Amino acid sequence: MENKRQKQVSRQIQKDLGEIFQKDFKLAFDNAFITITDVKVSPDLAIARVYLSFLMVDDKEALLEKIREQTKKIRGIFGHRVRNQFRIVPHFQFYLDDSAEYAQRMNELFDKLDIPPAPDADDEEDDTYTR
Length: 131
Description:
Elements: H1 4-24, E1 33-41, E2 47-55, H2 60-69, H3 71-81, E3 91-96, H4 99-112, H5 121-130
Parallel strand pairs: 2-3
Antiparallel strand pairs: 1-2
Helix pairs in contact: 1-3
C-alpha cells in the first residue's frame, strides 16, 4: 500500500517521463507513441517501476529493450528536471504494460459467446407456483 508521498512522487515521475519520452526521445525510439500507464515507487523512493504502453510499434519487446538501454540517459534528464524537487532521483525499471491488450482479448472472447435469451418473467412465476 502506497503512502501519500509515494503517490505524489509517482504522479510527478509519470508526468515528467511522459514529457521526456514525447519531446527528448521521440526520434530515438522511431517516433513510437509511448504512454506511461503506471508508476510504482518503493517506500524509500529509490526505485521506480515504470509500466509502459506502446502504439504504432511492431516489435514491443525490442522497443522496451531500447528503452532499457537508455535508462541511464533518461534518468539523467529526469534528474536535471527535478533537481529542486527530489532529494533522491530514483532508479527506473521499465516494464511492458499489456493490460490494454488483455482487455481487448477479453472483449473478443465475450463477443464470441453465444448466450441464449433469458426466459420471460411470466414463465418463471408459473413454474415457481406449480411445484
